[in-house]
């Protein structure tokens, strides 16, 4: 679980860097269009890749911090909530494994055939697709760690900052 916590922090850091990079690219595009009267050829393409990376690399850390969308009604019931949480985590693992398999298949196909983005820059598609594969793998690790924590009775999420300061 320590390994998963470390990879989640790394994934979170990379997602934040990509988010800031995405914002910087969009600001550069606005500046370029507004003042230089030209568009940056790569800004939209790389911004889309970065946004994909932000979402996928953020799945695992969001799960650990308890910021994912869920229904709290069942979780408020002590016995039912625990079993519902375990069941939902198992279902999530199945879907995360399917997501990983799909992303890995596309990544492997792009890597072996040398596919490139059909644009001026012609970015090798394996590069942004690798972010999807890494994000899906991190999500599987986070779900496995969550399941293990639920099974041994540890809290599956980190305490929220507001919860720590309230009491």
UniProtKB/TrEMBL annotation:
<keyword id="KW-0813">Transport</keyword>
<keyword id="KW-1003">Cell membrane</keyword>
<dbReference type="InterPro" id="IPR055348">
    <property type="entry name" value="DctQ"/>
</dbReference>
<keyword id="KW-0472">Membrane</keyword>
<dbReference type="GO" id="GO:0005886">
    <property type="term" value="C:plasma membrane"/>
</dbReference>
<dbReference type="GO" id="GO:0015740">
    <property type="term" value="P:C4-dicarboxylate transport"/>
</dbReference>
<feature type="transmembrane region" description="Helical">
    <location>
        <begin position="83"/>
        <end position="107"/>
    </location>
</feature>
<comment type="function">
    <text>Part of the tripartite ATP-independent periplasmic (TRAP) transport system.</text>
</comment>
<dbReference type="Pfam" id="PF04290">
    <property type="entry name" value="DctQ"/>
</dbReference>
<keyword id="KW-0997">Cell inner membrane</keyword>
<protein>
    <recommendedName>
        <fullName>TRAP transporter small permease protein</fullName>
    </recommendedName>
</protein>
<dbReference type="InterPro" id="IPR007387">
    <property type="entry name" value="TRAP_DctQ"/>
</dbReference>
<dbReference type="GO" id="GO:0022857">
    <property type="term" value="F:transmembrane transporter activity"/>
</dbReference>
<feature type="transmembrane region" description="Helical">
    <location>
        <begin position="12"/>
        <end position="32"/>
    </location>
</feature>
<feature type="transmembrane region" description="Helical">
    <location>
        <begin position="44"/>
        <end position="63"/>
    </location>
</feature>
<keyword id="KW-0812">Transmembrane</keyword>
<feature type="transmembrane region" description="Helical">
    <location>
        <begin position="127"/>
        <end position="148"/>
    </location>
</feature>
<comment type="subunit">
    <text>The complex comprises the extracytoplasmic solute receptor protein and the two transmembrane proteins.</text>
</comment>
<comment type="similarity">
    <text>Belongs to the TRAP transporter small permease family.</text>
</comment>
<feature type="domain" description="Tripartite ATP-independent periplasmic transporters DctQ component">
    <location>
        <begin position="23"/>
        <end position="151"/>
    </location>
</feature>
<keyword id="KW-1133">Transmembrane helix</keyword>
């Amino acid at each position: 679980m320590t390994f998963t916590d470390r990879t989640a922090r790394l994934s979170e850091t990379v997602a934040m860097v990509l988010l800031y990079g995405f914002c910087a690219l969009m600001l550069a595009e606005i500046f370029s269009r507004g003042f230089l009267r030209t568009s940056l050829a790569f800004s939209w393409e790389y911004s889309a890749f970065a946004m994909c990376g932000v979402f996928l690399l953020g799945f695992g850390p969001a799960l650990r911090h308890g910021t994912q969308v869920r229904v709290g009604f069942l979780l408020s019931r002590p016995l039912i909530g625990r079993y519902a949480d375990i069941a939902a985590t198992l279902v999530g693992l199945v879907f995360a494994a399917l997501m990983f398999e799909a992303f890995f298949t596309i990544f492997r196909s792009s890597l072996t055939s040398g596919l490139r983005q059909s644009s001026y820059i012609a970015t090798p598609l394996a590069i942004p697709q690798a972010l999807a594969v890494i994000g899906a793998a991190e999500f599987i690790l986070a779900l496995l760690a969550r399941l293990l924590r639920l099974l041994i009775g540890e809290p599956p999420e980190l305490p929220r900052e507001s919860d720590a300061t309230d009491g």
